[in-house]
Design goal:
The structure holds two protein chains of two kinds. Chain A is an alpha/beta fold. Chain A has 14 helices and 13 strands. In chain A, strands 2, 3, 4, 5, 6, 7, 8 and 11 form an eight-stranded mixed sheet that branches. Chain A has a two-stranded antiparallel sheet with strand order 1-9. A two-stranded parallel sheet of chain A has the order 12-13. In chain A, helix 3 runs parallel beside helix 5 (87-95) and helix 11 packs across helix 14 (326-341). Chain B is α/β, with parallel strands linked by helices. Chain B contains ten helices and nine strands. Chain B is globular and about 50 Å long. The model of chain B has no long low-confidence stretch (mean pLDDT 96). Classes of the chains: A alpha/beta, B alpha/beta. The A-B interface holds A 23-24, 26, 50, 52, 54-56, 58-59, 62-67, 69-72, 74, 88-89, 92, 96, 190, 197-202, 206-211 and B 7-8, 39-43, 45, 55, 59-66, 69, 72-81, 84, 101-102, 104-105. Strand 10 of chain A pairs parallel with strand 2 of chain B.
Chain lengths: 345, 244
């Protein structure tokens, strides 16, 4: 039986990770992520797992690398500047074909930025972020419930593709207290997959976790292309136009705009990469797209242009420091629709 | 007397330079793992530099970590697989430059892994640059006029940095000369014993010649190690030792 409880988004994510079989966490305090670390500092002991407050995000992601090599469902979480520090480790996870889950509770701004909610890490998260020829699966929850739901399936995806999965949460989702239905506990066996190091007898094949192309040589090219083609073939069924917390105000704005007789719909990418191209193919009548995201450069606009073959104009409604107000967004919808009627961008 | 290599040395990929200490260190670790009956369970973690080549010549389950993150990767692995002995093997650049924070905090938390640090006073894999362990006046490719210790600091000594930490074992051996190699093996064995007893961080630094990057003949490099390097890096046990 699942339980319905009132929880902070960050805590819902932490609890869902444990219920998904995660028994290894290493992290470092940074606002607005810290409740995940605080929650796991006592809760991980209760479920018999390993919790470490590391000396840095670098140490934490590399502990995750070691734990993942040993077959554990390993998690690290951070925000903005701390998430940047993890990029080398994420690149290593990709290079060595290791599954792990890395959560970025996004905050605002480059550099130190600030602790308010933001969505300015879209490019960093969907484009790789570290060195080399890789991308990562990125999931974008929009509520405490989805923090739990997406965290719960993230390890399955990571292990399916032997690849890290990133979760793009944010301060608003992490800090909001909402009703959450928690999933059932799942067991995870360290020796479930043969690639996990465990010690080798002389008469068995030893395991080596290292950059895959060292062993593979030239076939690595096809291997890597196939791997990403497989990941991209997984299209999510549920799609809307703003991602994460911005999609909630967008839902309200769409309702408000429809009440005014405006023909407005919503595409909400839950999987940020691979980008849900099919959802855009299905929106055949769209004359323009309007993104609503908490950054000033309109970071999803390029992906929408790619998904639509630049067939229609793409507009942006952006803000930092605060989630866009519903009425402001409705006003922007009206403004864009007027502009499109008058000939567009 | 019949000499036999340990079963866990494969001889399939051996690629260290003549006179280097890594080969000796790798053999000693394999011997100790076999003698203590833990070769089937031991997991090794290597860095990306010269020492990583043990990944191929050892027959152990092995993880290659990012540069300087070897120890912390081993720590994560050990926490996830507490029934396996876990050994981190890396060099002085990884330990005392890029991975200094990880080195210190492994000591502060007394993490339960074996750390074997091969100290050759330079960066070997990248061609012999100055390291935090480089001796005063020592010429390297990034200190061609000799290391100026006023600008770049005296050689880093782990026994000083770890003096206040409550770790079960800290020792320094040398990989040249029969007596030293025998003592180094005893140190590695002591580290394994205490690790298997779950006592915490068991740390052995091993001085190694690097004839290629020191630009010396192997025999001269051994002499340099024993006469010059040991002035700054005294051999012996600093914590928890009783090796003769």
């Amino acid at each position: 039986m699942s339980e319905r409880v009132l929880m902070k988004g960050n805590e819902a994510l932490a609890e869902a990770a444990l219920r998904a079989g995660c028994r290894f966490f290493a992290g470092y305090p940074i606002t607005p992520q810290t409740e995940i670390l605080e929650y796991l500092s006592w809760r991980m002991d209760e479920v018999g797992g390993s919790y470490t407050q590391a000396e840095s995000e670098l140490a934490a992601i590399n502990m995750v690398y070691g734990a993942a090599a040993g077959g554990a469902r390993a998690l690290t979480t951070s925000s903005g500047p701390g998430f940047s520090l993890k990029q080398e480790g994420i690149s290593y996870l990709c290079g060595s074909d290791l599954p792990a889950v890395i959560v970025n509770v996004m905050r605002v701004g480059s550099g130190l930025g600030n602790i308010f909610q933001g969505q300015g890490d879209y490019w960093q998260m969907t484009r790789g972020g570290g060195h080399g020829d890789y991308r990562t699966i990125v999931l974008a929850p929009n509520s405490a419930q989805e923090n739990a739901d997406l965290m719960y399936i993230a390890f399955d995806l990571a292990e399916k593709y032997k690849h890290p999965v990133l979760i793009a949460s944010d301060a608003a989702i992490g800090q909001s207290i909402e009703a959450v239905e928690l999933p059932e506990f799942k067991e995870h066996d360290l020796n479930r997959y043969d690639w996990a190091v465990r010690g080798a007898k002389m008469d068995e094949k030893r395991r080596m976790v290292k950059n895959v192309f060292y062993e593979m040589g030239e076939p690595y090219e096809d291997y890597l292309r196939d791997k990403y083609a497989q990941i991209e073939a997984e299209e999510p069924e549920l799609v809307l136009v703003a991602f994460g917390i911005s999609s909630r105000v967008s839902e309200e704005a769409v309702e408000g705009a429809r009440a005014k007789g405006l023909k407005v719909g919503l595409i909400r990418p839950i999987t940020l990469w691979p980008f849900p191209v099919k959802a855009f193919e299905e929106a055949k009548n769209a004359k323009a797209y309007l993104t609503n995201e908490m950054n000033l450069l309109g970071q999803t606009m390029d992906d929408i242009r790619l998904a639509t073959g630049c067939s229609v104009p793409v507009y942006h409604s952006g803000s930092i420091f605060a989630i866009t107000d519903t009425n402001d967004l409705i006003a922007r919808i009206e403004e864009v629709m007027e502009e499109v009627k008058g000939g567009g961008q | 007397m019949k000499l036999k290599a340990p079963d866990r040395i494969t001889f399939s990929h051996f690629s260290f330079c003549p006179g280097c200490g890594h080969g000796v260190a790798g053999r000693l670790i394999a011997e100790v793992a076999e003698e203590m009956g833990v070769a089937n369970e031991l997991i090794t973690v290597v860095d990306v530099a010269c020492g990583s080549m043990h990944m191929n010549d050892w027959y152990f389950d092995t993880v290659m970590a990012a540069h300087g993150r070897t120890l912390v990767t081993a720590i994560g692995l050990k926490k996830a697989r507490q029934d396996n002995p876990v050994l981190a093997y890396y060099g002085d650049g990884a330990a005392y430059a890029i991975g200094m924070a990880e080195t210190m905090h492994a000591g502060i938390r007394n993490e339960n892994v074996i750390a074997i640090v091969v100290n050759n006073a330079i960066y070997g894999m990248t061609g012999g640059q100055m390291a935090p362990t480089t001796l005063p006046g020592q010429k390297t490719t990034s200190s061609p006029m000799g290391k100026d210790e006023v600008r770049f600091g005296m050689p880093f000594k782990i026994e000083d940095a770890f003096s206040g930490f409550d770790i079960p074992y800290l020792a320094r051996g040398a990989l040249v000369g029969a007596g030293n190699v025998t003592r180094a093996k005893k140190m590695i064995k002591k580290a394994f014993e205490k690790h298997l007893n779950n006592e915490g961080l068991c740390y052995v630094e091993l001085l190694s010649p690097c004839p290629t990057n020191w630009n010396m003949e192997p025999v001269d490099s051994k002499k340099f190690l024993l006469e010059e390097m040991t002035k700054h890096f005294p051999l012996g046990e600093f914590k928890g030792g009783d090796v003769k």
